[in-house]
Design brief:
Layout: H1 3-7, H2 30-43, E1 49-51, H3 56-62, E2 84-88, H4 92-100, H5 107-121, H6 125-128, H7 131-141, E3 146-149, E4 153-157, E5 166-169
Parallel strand pairs: 3-5
Antiparallel strand pairs: 1-2, 2-4, 3-4
Helix pairs in contact: 2-7
Length: 171
C-alpha cells in the first residue's frame, strides 16, 4: 500500500505532517498511525504533529540521539520505519501534578503514577473538559507505553526495543 492509500485510513492526519524536514521522506509506521488515529477519535481533540520522521543528517545537525525512535535511517543509510511522534500539547498542568506529588525521578514510577492518575480522575470534569488532559488519557487508553512529556509536546513511540511502561520529562 502506498503512502497516499495508507493515509486514507487516517482522516485526521496528512502525510506532510510526518515528513523529515531535511529530506522530505516519510516512513511513518502504519501501527503508530493506527494508534494515533484511535487516540484522536477517542479524545475528540484535534492535535498537530511537531515532529515525526527524521533522517540521520537532520538528527546529527540538531545534536539529537542516533538511537532516537524518530530516526528513519540506520547508520548504513538504509531506510526503516519511523516509530515516534511529538504531538503539540500544553502540559503545564500535568507537569505541575508531577511536581506537586513529588514523584521520584524514575521513569517507571512516573508512568505508574500517570496511569493511576488517569484511572482515578480520567472521567472527572477536570479531565473531560480539558483537551490537553483528554489527549493524554486517550494516548494511554490506546496503548502507548513510552511517553515523554515537555511543556509544549508529548512524545509517544512504539519502539519495542526500548524500555516499556516509562514516562520521562523533558526539561
Amino acid at each position: 500500500m502506498n503512502l497516499k492509500e495508507q493515509f486514507k485510513k487516517f482522516p485526521n492526519f496528512k502525510p506532510s505532517e510526518f515528513v523529515c524536514p531535511c529530506c522530505g521522506v516519510n516512513t511513518i509506521s502504519f501501527n503508530l498511525m493506527q494508534m494515533l488515529q484511535k487516540a484522536r477519535t477517542q479524545s475528540n481533540t484535534p492535535f498537530g504533529i511537531n515532529s515525526a520522521c527524521r533522517c540521520i543528517f537532520y538528527t546529527k545537525k540538531r545534536g539529537w540521539s542516533l538511537t532516537s525512535s524518530h530516526l528513519i535511517q540506520k547508520l548504513n543509510l538504509e531506510y526503516k520505519e519511523c516509530l515516534a511522534v511529538d504531538i503539540r500539547n500544553n502540559n503545564e498542568f500535568i507537569l505541575n501534578m508531577f511536581e506537586s506529588f513529588d514523584i521520584p525521578n524514575n521513569s517507571i514510577e512516573r508512568f505508574n503514577f500517570l496511569k493511576k492518575l488517569i484511572e482515578t480522575f480520567g472521567n472527572s470534569t477536570r479531565f473531560t473538559n480539558d483537551k490537553n488532559l483528554r489527549l493524554l488519557k486517550s494516548l494511554l487508553d490506546v496503548g502507548f507505553i513510552r511517553i515523554g512529556i515537555s511543556k509544549t509536546f508529548i512524545h509517544v513511540d512504539i519502539d519495542m526495543s526500548k524500555d516499556k511502561n516509562v514516562c520521562w520529562i523533558y526539561k
